Amino acid sequence: MTSTATAKPPVTAAWRDPGRWADRAAAVGLVVLLIVFQLLDPGFLAIGNIRSMLLASAILVVLSIGQAFVVATGGIDLSVASTMTFAAALFGFGFARGWGLPLCCVVALVGGTAVGLVSGVLIGHGRITDFVVTLGALSAASGAALVIADGKPVTVVDAGLLRLSAGGIGPIGWSVVVAAVLAVVAHVVLFRTRVGTHVLAAGGNPEAAVATGISVARIKVLVYAASGLLAGIAAILLISRVGAAEPASNTSFLLNSVAAVVLGGVSLAGGRGGIAGPVLGALLLTVLANGLTMLGVSPFYQPLAVGVVVVAAAFLTRWRR
């Protein structure tokens, strides 16, 4: 009697499979950019520039982690950048009044979580479309930040906060360590806990999830609140980097967080997600912006480059397995 086994495709055929490349778009793109920019500018991979890129990417990585959880449920958080700005404005408000660093951090985290929590309740229990709710939250959070700060940035000088961006181990700053720890925790939650299973189930087939006893509404509230909390953490990292609490919203963080998630292989339809992919996507976008700057390319072209990358990543989803 002869035994049968599942035949494996030849190695050459496997590497010709578009799905294989689509699943690795962020990793392959990152490696290609590093090689190209290093060839064009020998100083690109200098220790100082590597440290600068890692510090810049830490903020986007944190935002992308929260966005990844939301998108995995089939939603999208358009307010993530404005929530970060709102949390930063709360931090600056407290710092200007001498509240102390710990209390200012708590206020920023609570404020960011509150924005996400309200959005999650309206989406999950109010059954309002996520696009409409988060678009409204985007405007409300941006306006509230300007009101709180009276439209003026607050200079933040604190030795403890400065260590987040200035301190670290070699080229790895403490803010990068914070982002890495959050990424590991998020990966464990998504793939090793019941909550993560429920998040993917709620995004993949909400009706089936409800039939198995999963509260999709509760999951929605949870992921949007988590996104708001991570936006609060990103606000603290941003303040430590620029040395000020800016009340003006930077919409590029919104576009880049969605781009990083798409590049990382998280399905915009929900039900499929990961953390490593969005992290690599955030690194790729940071490397792209840094490399173009070092080559003297006008900053006006950088959003164009990001847009092209996003469209290319979306096109690759046709072959994702």
UniProtKB/TrEMBL annotation:
Keyword Aminoacyl-tRNA synthetase: no
InterPro entries: ABC_transp_permease
Transmembrane segments: 25-47, 54-76, 99-124, 131-149, 169-191, 221-239, 251-268, 275-294, 300-319
Localization in the cell: Cell membrane
Keywords: Cell membrane, Membrane, Transmembrane, Transmembrane helix
Membrane topology of this protein: Multi-pass membrane protein
Record Pfam families: BPD_transp_2
Name of protein: ABC transporter permease
Lineage: Bacteria, Bacillati, Actinomycetota, Actinomycetes, Pseudonocardiales
